Structure formats: structure tokens, C-alpha cells
Amino acid sequence: MRKKITPTFLQSVVYDESGVYKLGCIFGRMNTLRALLRKELLLEWRQKHALAGVVLYVLATVFVCYLGFQRIESAKTWGVLLWITGLFTAFNAMQKTFSSETAGTQLFLYTLAHPRYIILSKAIYNALFVALLNLASVFFFIVFFGTDVLQSVDWLQFLLGLLLGSTGLGLALTFVAGIAFKSEGGVGLVAILGFPVIMPLLITIVRHTTAALEGASMTQNSLNLLVLVVLNVVSFVLSYVLFPYLWRE
User: Which pTM does this prediction carry?
Assistant: First the structure.
């Protein structure tokens, strides 16, 4: 027996009792998440000045590092400066995660989608955005400092660490930005709450990046990689479980 469900937010499927119901739910959830991700992308594209400002911030930070060091021969110094740039860039990018939406927009989204889809879409978008900004940082570092430090680099480990570090920053700071927005604490509260949260991530990713730049094997660097994966999973689970309670306030 087939029964038709009234279409909700991007969900228009036919369900029956033989397993198609579950498949339909998956497609409905994916459509919802895809629509929210598209919304984030369109909002970012409409605010091109903000995007250009973040890229200019990355360039200016790398240029200041160049003025201070001129030449970097230590892999550890290269990795530390890279992630200092990535850290402050991520904080700068997270400021508008929730503050760019009015109370009316928040209420409208609340009626259309589950809060978990909202935090997932923002976290995924921010993680990808931070990853792209960190790739831009790597490019600017190569332009200003050359490739002397990169002679022994294990590119697979380096890029994997860059991705995991970026997603970790995106996931953790998105949830922190939601807490700060709901408590009306502003940008300052994001920094106060975010810094102790990401300290374990920052320490681990600097160690992982330094080892990758020095050409350490995957086995030697496996502990740092495992810690990065665990921190990403913990940030994801906390955001997924706790954000709906925060959203209702």
C-alpha cells in the first residue's frame, strides 16, 4: 500500500511499507542539507567584499610574517607560522556565521529544517571555507618564502593534516559561534570560548605539520593523525547533539 506525504522543505517523495520509506528519508535529508549549503554559498557570494576582506587578511598576515623573518629554514617555524595565520583567519571568518542572519531569518529556518541540518550545513561550509583559506595561506607562504622548507615534505600527510586541521577549526568554531550568538556575547565571546577549545587541536596540527614537512613516515606521524581524527569526531558529535537544545532557546 502506497501513501503520499505532503511535501515539506525540499521533500517530495512517495513512501511505502517495504523499505522505500527509509530511502526516501535519506534523500529528503540530503536535499535539505544541500539546500542549506547552497544558501550559505549564495550568501557568501552576495557579500563579495567580506570574502575579499578575508583573503586580503590572509595575504597581509603572511606579508607581515615575511617582513619579520625574511627567510625560514626551520620546518617547525614554517608550520607554526602557517597555523597562526590559519587560526586567526578562521576566527575572522567565523564572525559572520550566525551574526549575518536576522532573528526573522533564524525563525524562518527553524520552521523549515531541523537544527541539526542547520549546524551541519554551517559546519561543513565553514570547514571547506577554512580549508580553502589555508590552501591560500600555503600558496602565499611559498610565494614569499620559497620552497626550501618543502624539499623533504610528504605532501600526502601535509595535505591530509591541512584538511583535518581546517575541518577541526571549522566544526569547533561554528559551534562556539552559535553559543556566542545565542548568548548575545558578540565576537569577543567567540575568541574567549574558542581559544581553549581549539588549543589541543592547534598543538596537534602543528606537530603533525612539522613532522610532514620534515618527511616523517606515516607510521611515525600516525598518533598525531589519530588525535586529529578523534578531535574532529568529538567536535562533530558535540555540535550534532547539543546544538538543537541551544537553537530552541
Answer: 0.78
Note the pLDDT of residue 99: 62
Residue 91 grid cell? 576566527
Q: Which helix (H) or strand (E) holds 3?
A: strand 2-4
Alpha-carbon distances, residue 65 vs 133, 147, 199, 227 (angstroms): 17, 16, 22, 28
pLDDT tens for 40-53 read 777 777 777 777 88
Beta-carbon contacts of residue 138 (< 8 Å; ≥ 6 apart): 82, 162
Query: Per residue in 139-166, pLDDT tens?
Result: 999 999 888 888 888 889 999 999 999 9
Contacts 24+ apart (CB under 8 A), 33-39: 33/117, 33/120, 33/121, 33/124, 34/10, 35/9, 35/10, 36/109, 36/113, 36/117, 36/118, 36/120, 36/121, 36/122, 37/121, 37/124, 37/125, 39/121
d(CA 6, CA 13): 9
